[in-house]
Amino acid sequence: MERTLGQIADMCGGRLIGTASAQEPIQGVVIDSRKLVERCLFVPLGGANVDGHEFVEGALQAGAVASFWQKDRANAPAGNLIEVDDVLEALQTLAGAYLQASGAKVVGITGSNGKTTTKDMVFSLLNTSLRVHKTQGNFNNHLGLPLTLLQMPEDTQVVVLEMGMSDLGEIAKLAQIAPPDVAIVTNIGESHLLNLGSRENIARAKLEIASGAKPGALLIYNGDEPLIPPILEELADSLPAGLRTFTFGLGADNDDYPLGLMQVSGGMTFSAHSEEDIGFSLPVPGSHNVTNALAALAAAREFGIDASRMQEGLAHLQLTGMRIERLTSVSGLTILNDAYNSSPTSARAAIDVLQGLAGCASKVLVLGDMLELGPEEQAYHREIGRYAARAGFDAIYAYGPLSAYAAEGARETPTAGSVYAFTDKAAMIAHLQASLKPEDAVLFKASRGMRLEEAAYALRDATLTGENGA
Questions:
Q1: d(Cα 134, Cα 146) in Å, to the nearest integer?
Q2: CA atoms within 13 A on the CB side of 207
Q3: Higher pLDDT, 290 or 191
């Protein structure tokens, strides 16, 4: 974003104070005083333990051209300041105004699982023909989304935004900042049951993206999820005029569904009901990723991307890390790192991927705790253990206090192979290193708080001894 201080004050509803000149040029916004860039605006956000206002004076001395200053804070330092009622709200308002001025179209993506992967797919498809900007990493909340918008080049044609939530009302706020032209709901899972209490409430929270969309927008949603139609009907009075819908999924009653679905080395091949004469190659495994791709294809068609460009976009897809990230260890071991997030829905999808993997001697699953599942968390873990055991893996490792229940569920199943439960990550890594062979495959799946990627990367860099045998 390149604007003058006066323009920024007008855009965010603030006023210039101190020595601020309306004509002073600004390039970019920074919220961390340790990461200042030339001619930036510093935004002093509050945190649990730190108030960013404490760093304003230092930021101005270190090169920031100006800073926001919340008017209820005393002792404003000398320098270029924009006084605002609330710093976070001013940042959000500024981002929304910048988006509106740019004229960029918005693709908003939410869902319990698959948001980031679908975002990457939509970006890859649209980027074949248009100037596209997307959410980086997991910047999908009330702070990350406005920062994503303010990093957007002025000539962007489409911005692809991941919209996350942990409670009701949060996606509504994101959609207020960036009303979608195209809204995608990947699925309704069990994540955030701890806060929301039921899958119905999760569906209500996710479908705030539809209520916040622009008039005439396209809502693309997973038609295999039975909760979505009744919640949409419940929300009928709040939906924008002329809202269109398009369903995708594995079922043939959807507007689009896969044909000729096949797992191949390194990924999937499929055609789609919407493009029956076109074959697509997807460089990531799993039927759930094919359904994510169908959603992305629908968004691409809305923007006029032709089939050959869509083929190209999917074939060259690059995913954000730790979403079934395929690694090869120094010993040759195949590692699937899916340790960014986990829920019963996504854990089953990952288990299916490992089960369908070909060309390996033994298949080993490492499960870490699934967090924020509420009072039924033990039952969910037991059922995932049973589901994993039915897949017939050579070994199942469970890491963490909740995953101990997954181990219990696995041991209840006659088809289970070896089952191990650990609370010490280093001990588990040592056991894996002594058990796995170079021709094996191992998949890591857990919620982010378990940091199970540390085990994946340790095995990537380790020499296997294979003493115990998987």
A1: 12
A2: 25
A3: 290
Per-residue 3-state assignment (H helix, E strand, C coil) for 345-357: HHHHHHHHHHHHC
**Per-residue pLDDT tens over the stretch 377-399:** 999 999 999 999 999 999 999 99
Q: What is the torsion angle, in degrees rounded to the nearest 10, for the CA atoms of residue 448, residue 205, residue 292 and residue 100?
A: -100
Evaluate whether 178 touches 99 at the Cβ level (below 8 Å). yes
- CA–CA separation, 280 vs 290, rounded Å? 10
Q: In what order do the strands lie in the sheet with 218-222?
A: 132-134, 158-162, 105-110, 182-185, 218-222, 244-248
Pairing of strands 66-70, 80-84: parallel
103-315 is classed CATH 2.40.30.10:
no
Query: Does pLDDT of 372 surpass 60?
Result: yes
Q: 3-class DSSP state for residue 320?
A: coil
Provide the mean pLDDT of the chain. Answer: 94
Q: Which amino acid is at 416?
A: A
Residue 265: pLDDT band (50, 70, 90) is confident
- Categorize the per-residue pLDDT at 467 as very low, low, confident or very high, splitting at 50, 70 and 90: low
Q: What is the CATH number of domain 325-460?
A: 3.90.190.20
pLDDT for 186 equals 97
Q: Average pLDDT for residues 189-210, to the nearest whole number?
A: 91
Integer Cα distance of 68 and 80 in angstroms: 9
Angstrom CA distances, 77 to 6, 13, 20, 34, 57, stand at 19, 21, 12, 19, 6
For strands 158-162 and 105-110, give the pairing: parallel
Distances (CA, A) of 144 to 36, 72, 94, 341, 388: 17, 24, 13, 18, 35
Half-sphere exposure of 49 (CA within 13 A, CB side): 0
Q: How far apart are CA 94 and CA 151, in angstroms?
A: 12
The fold for domain 2-85 equals 3.40.1390
| Full-model pTM | 0.86
Q: What is the C-alpha separation between 208 and 232, in angstroms, rounded? A: 10
Which DSSP state fits 51?
A: B
- At 469 the pLDDT is 47
User: Mind giving me the DSSP string for 399-457?
Assistant: ESTTHHHHHHHHHTSTT--EEEEES-HHHHHHHHHHH--TT-EEEEE--GGG-THHHHH
Residue spans per domain, the chain: 2-85, 103-315, 325-460
Q: Which residues contact 334 (CB under 8 A, 6 or more apart)?
A: 326, 327, 328, 357, 360, 440, 441, 442
441's CB contacts (< 8 A; 6+ apart) are 333, 334, 335, 336, 354, 357, 360, 362, 363, 364
